[in-house]
Amino acid sequence: MRARMRGQKTSYHHGDLKQGLMEAAATLIDIRGRHALTMREAARRAGVSEAAPYRHFSNLDELLGAVALEGFDMLIEDVEGASSAKAVREAYLDFAADFPGRYELMFGKLGDRKAATRRKHLVSDLAELTERAGGLAALHGEASLRLAGLGA
C-alpha cells in the first residue's frame, strides 16, 4: 500500500494499529524530518493514547527502523515495476522527491539492529534492480544532490 503523501494527517480507526502508527510516523518524517518524530507525536497523529505505540514498538528506534524498511519495500516495488532503464531511474528519483524524509531515513544510521541487518539485504536487492539504470550509487548520489537543492 502506498503511504500517504506529505501533509496528509493520518488517524487510526480500530484497524491495524501498527500500520497506523507507521503511516503517522512516515508522514511526519516526510514533512519535518526524522528528528521531529517522537513516540508521543506518532501516537497523537494516529489518534491513540501515548502508551499505545509501545504495544508494537519497544522504542523510537524500532519505529524508525520499521518505517525505513517499509520505505525500501515501497521503493523496490516501484523499481521492479519499471520496464526500462529510464523508467527505473525515474521511479527511483521520484520516490526520493515524493518522500524526502523517509528517503533520508532509509539511508541514514538506524539504531534498531534488526532493521539495520534487514536493510543490508534490501540495499543489495535494490542495487541489483538499479544496475541497468546506472547503479544504486549513481542514483542515490543524484537523488541526494536533488534533495539538497544541488541537482536538476
Condensed summary:
The protein is an all-alpha fold and 152 residues long.
Word description of this protein:
There is one protein chain. The protein is an all-alpha fold and 152 residues long. It has helices spanning 17-32, 39-46, 60-80, 85-98, 100-106, 113-130, 136-147. Residues 1-14 have low confidence and may be disordered. The two termini are 29 Å apart. It has seven helices and no strands. 63% of the residues lie in helices and 0% in strands. Helix 1 crosses helix 3, helix 1 (17-32) packs across helix 5 and helix 3 (60-80) crosses helix 5 (100-106).
List the helices and strands and how they pair.
Layout: H1 17-32, H2 39-46, H3 60-80, H4 85-98, H5 100-106, H6 113-130, H7 136-147
Descriptive labels:
152 residues; mainly alpha; 7 helices; elongated
Order of helices and strands: HHHHHHH
Number of helices: 7
Number of strands: 0
Main β-sheet, in a few words? Answer: none
Mean pLDDT: 90
How far is the first residue's CA from the last residue's CA?
Answer: 29 Å
Q: Which overall shape is indicated by the principal axes computed on the Cα atoms?
A: elongated
* Poorly predicted runs of 5 or more residues: 1-14
The Rg value, from CA coordinates, equals 15 Å
Helix content: 55-70%
Strand % is under 5%
Determine the structural class based on helices, strands and strand pairing. mainly alpha
